[in-house]
Write a structure and sequence with these properties.
- The structure is a single chain.
- The chain is an alpha/beta fold.
- The protein folds into two domains: 143 residues, P-loop containing nucleotide triphosphate hydrolases (Rossmann fold); 65 residues, no CATH class.
- The protein has six helices and nine strands; from the N terminus they run βββαβββαααβαβαβ.
- A five-stranded parallel sheet has the order 6-7-8-3-9, sandwiched between helices. It has a four-stranded antiparallel sheet with strand order 2-1-4-5, covered by helices on one side.
- Helix 3 packs across helix 4.
- The radius of gyration is 17 Å and the shape is globular.
Length: 218
Amino acid sequence: MSTSLEMRNIQKFYGPLQVVKDFNLQIQPGEFVTFLGPSGSGKSTALKMIAGFETPTSGDIFLGSRSIVELPAYERGIGMVFQNYALFPHMTVAENVAFPLTVRKSTRAQIESSVARALRLVKMEQYSGRYPNQLSGGQQQRIALARAIVFNPSILLMDEPLGALDRNLREHMKIEIMRIQKELNMTVVFVTHDQDEALTMSDRDRSYQRRPTRSGGR
C-alpha cells in the first residue's frame, strides 16, 4: 500500500560541506516524483536520507504521519533499487528476490508466493534458477526491481537505476517501471540527471541546481 512522504527543513552537512540545504517536499500516495539534477547536487544524498542510509543534520522525515528520522533503514519498509543492481552473486535469482522476506522471517509459503508474483511483474519467471552473472544488465535490473517490491514496500526509491544500461534498454525499462508503478499504485522517488527520464516518467520533478560549495556531494 502506497503512503505519503514529507521532508521538513532537511539539511545535511559532511563536516563543513553542506550538501542539502533547507529541503522541503511533500509527496502524495501513489505519486511518481523525480529528483533531477547534475552529479554533486545532493539528490542521491536526499534519497539516502529517506532510505535511512544517511541521517539528516537537522530536519525531519515523515512516512504518513510517522516520523522515521530515528528509525534504522530495515524498519522503514522502504524498497530501494541501486544503479549497480547490488545483487548477491552467490544467490540465484529466486534467492536474491526472496532475501528481504527471508530477513523478515516470512514463512516458506509466503516467500514462494511473493517471489513468484514479483518475478511475474518484471517478466522474469523463467530465470528464477539462474545466477546474476548469467543475466544481461537489463535482466539484472529487473531482478533488482523485483527484490525491491517483493515485500510490498510503502515507498520505492530508485537511485539512477537506468544509468548503466544502453539507450535501447533504458527506453524499454522506463516503460516497464512506469507499468509496474501504476499496477501497484506505488509511491516512487526516482533520482536521475537525465531530463528526458524525468519528463517522461514522473508526475512531477524536483530539480537540483545548487551544487555543494566543495566537491564530494551526490
